[in-house]
Design a protein that fits this description.
Layout: H1 10-17, H2 26-34, E1 41-45, H3 52-63, H4 70-73, H5 84-87, E2 92-97, H6 98-103, H7 111-126, H8 138-149, E3 153-158, H9 162-165, H10 171-185, H11 188-193, E4 194-201, E5 207-208, E6 211-212, E7 218-220, E8 234-235, H12 236-245, H13 250-257, E9 260-262, E10 265-268, H14 270-279, H15 296-299, H16 306-314, E11 319-320, H17 336-346, E12 350-352, E13 357-359, H18 363-374, H19 379-396, H20 400-414, H21 423-433, E14 445-446, E15 449-450, E16 453-459, E17 471-478, H22 482-491, E18 505-513, E19 518-525
Parallel strand pairs: 1-4, 1-7, 2-3, 3-4, 17-18
Antiparallel strand pairs: 5-6, 8-10, 9-10, 11-13, 12-13, 14-16, 15-16, 16-17, 18-19
Helix pairs in contact: 1-3, 16-21, 19-20, 20-21
Length: about 525
């Protein structure tokens, strides 16, 4: 048993000792299924507060020869699997945390040597006959041990990307580190001594030119989590059970902390969910573990359309993003799409894999992003806020003429000439137009455009504003009649979608006439039966 080679299970025991532990041992069933195959190279990236280290510690506790973990895992999901005991504590395992090594180095240039010396020292104590003094590289050591003993290794690297995403780290340290990883995992020889490689961090494996530096790794990310989706964050079923156990309002938990879409799962931020269950306070817990200062430089980059995209998403809209250009580091950010993709990996944005769009996932992140935006003066933001406040006031006053005028003004100022007659632009304009409503309302419930019209937006006021602000049901029409929008709201019984809402409801119909470039608006109070 060592610190890095064949460690004990004490790190995972800490998680089990916690007041709230959600069983994610189903991940082990997947890793068991790929042991000693070409799929045994896994990079599972996720944001901070999403249980990266818990997962790494769990795998180490299960596989390490230095632990006796049968009792620890009994009763957990993996114990029901037919292969549970077959792989339990059967492997030589190396578990390293690059963040820890970096923190204990004077210079980043020394990290690779520090890791190598630390692990080699423990390997020599276990396999002295296989490692003569001249062996000075970790890949060579693992190859020699496998050749001498037949023993393969499981290698787990936590915070694998800390040197890659730290812009302050010099290029030599980064290049040396990538070379170290490539030597450890890439090529024919590593397939002889690697049983399983599991990397976890915030970023996927770094790209060099058009190829991945480690293209033999399967990537499981916030862009595409695939089979590992239920093991990244808390699922909706898990959160619902916790809400019931701790007597929390599940709908409120959902509004505050839901929103990450991974495969077929709605995924929640685990740290936030645990905090609200134990404390009972619905607020942002994000800033307790990470400062928004990390993204302020990103959202202030002078890329065309970036600030408008941020404002649009803060307003509840989704924005198309090309994630393919991002190089998985912070040095080669070159466009709006690169910034948005990085923010997805950081957890500040959600991603819809089907529609290829980015969005603000929940109320917690909306507050953090708003704080980040307001920390710098954006003329764009100030303009939209002022116009939006006028629009919201006119809506609440049921002044359809003024609402139409304000939307028309924002439409003219926000949308380029090329996009002006794009039907989708009207939907985006509405999201931007009601930006100021985000102070009083939750993220609007929004459906996709259908046919030549647009499905409704539903704005529900936050509980503290329920007595002062009505719910808004907004229907958009393109090149039709404004009365058609109002009729559709009533005929399709849109208010029934919020039938449990007991406060006042306003129905808002808006139409844009392509020929005259004019907007019309009708507003009525909904009369409940």
């Amino acid at each position: 048993m060592g610190r890095f080679v064949n460690p004990d299970n004490s790190a995972f025991q800490v998680a089990l000792n916690s007041k709230i532990y959600v069983d994610k041992t189903g991940l082990i069933e997947y890793t068991n299924s790929v042991l000693d195959t070409t799929d045994a190279y896994i990079c599972n990236s996720r944001p901070r507060r999403f249980g990266k280290s818990y997962a790494a510690n769990m795998l180490a506790a299960y596989y390490s020869k230095g632990a006796d973990s049968e009792k620890m895992f009994s009763g957990l999901e993996i114990s029901k699997d037919v292969n549970f005991k077959r792989h339990l504590n059967k492997y030589d395992l190396i578990h390293i945390d690059i963040q820890w090594f970096l923190a204990n180095c004077v210079e980043a240039d020394n990290v690779v040597d520090f890791v190598t010396d630390s692990v080699l020292g423990e390997l020599r104590a276990i396999y002295p006959e296989a490692l003569p003094p001249e062996v000075s590289r970790l890949p060579d050591a693992l190859s020699r041990i496998k050749d001498r003993t037949g023993q393969k290794f499981i290698v787990i690297i936590d915070e694998w990307d800390v040197l890659i995403r730290d812009a302050a780290t010099d290029n030599k340290a980064k290049d040396d580190y990538i070379t170290f990883l490539r030597g450890l995992f890439k090529g024919t020889e590593p397939t002889k001594y690697i049983q399983l490689a599991y990397l976890t961090g915030i970023l996927p494996v770094k790209k060099e030119k058009t190829q991945s530096a480690l293209n033999n790794f399967d990537e499981f990310t916030m862009l595409s989590a695939s089979e590992l989706a239920p093991y990244i964050g808390f699922t909706e079923d898990e959160v619902e059970k916790l809400a019931e156990k701790y007597h929390r309002d599940f709908d409120e938990v959902k509004r505050w902390y839901d929103g990450y879409l991974l495969k077929d799962y709605q995924v929640y931020n685990p740290r936030a969910v645990v905090s609200v269950m134990l404390r009972g306070e619905f607020r942002s817990y994000w800033s307790e573990t990470a400062s928004y200062d990390a993204i302020v430089p990103l959202i202030n980059m002078n890329y065309d359309g970036l600030k408008t995209a941020i404002i649009e998403m803060l307003s509840g809209a989704e924005v198309r993003v090309n994630t393919a250009t991002f190089k998985n580091d912070t040095v080669n950010i070159r466009s709006k799409d690169d910034v948005l993709t990085y923010m997805i990996h950081l957890g500040y944005l959600g991603y819809n894999e089907i529609r290829k769009t980015a969005f603000v996932p929940n109320e917690e992140i909306r507050q953090e992003l708003t704080t980040a935006v307001e920390s710098k003066t954006w003329n764009e933001m100030l303009t939209f806020q002022q116009e939006s406040e006028r629009l919201l006031d006119a809506t609440l006053d049921m002044d359809g003429v003024e609402v139409a005028a304000q939307i028309e003004k924002i439409h003219n100022e926000y949308v380029s000439v090329i996009q002006y007659h794009n039907e989708n632009s009207l939907s985006s304009v509405l999201a931007i137009a009601y930006l100021s409503a985000m102070q009083y309302y939750f993220k609007p419930i929004r459906e996709l455009p259908t046919g030549r019209g647009f499905a409704d937006f539903v704005f529900l006021p936050k509980p503290e504003y329920k007595n002062d602000y009505p719910a808004l049901i907004v229907e958009l029409k393109w090149n039709q009649k404004v009365q058609t929008a109002m009729t559709q709201i009533k005929d399709k019984k849109y208010p029934s979608s919020i039938s449990n809402y007991t406060g006042e409801i306003l129905l808002v119909g808006i139409n844009y006439d392509k020929n005259s470039k004019e907007h019309q608006c009708l507003i009525e109070k909904y009369k409940k039966d």
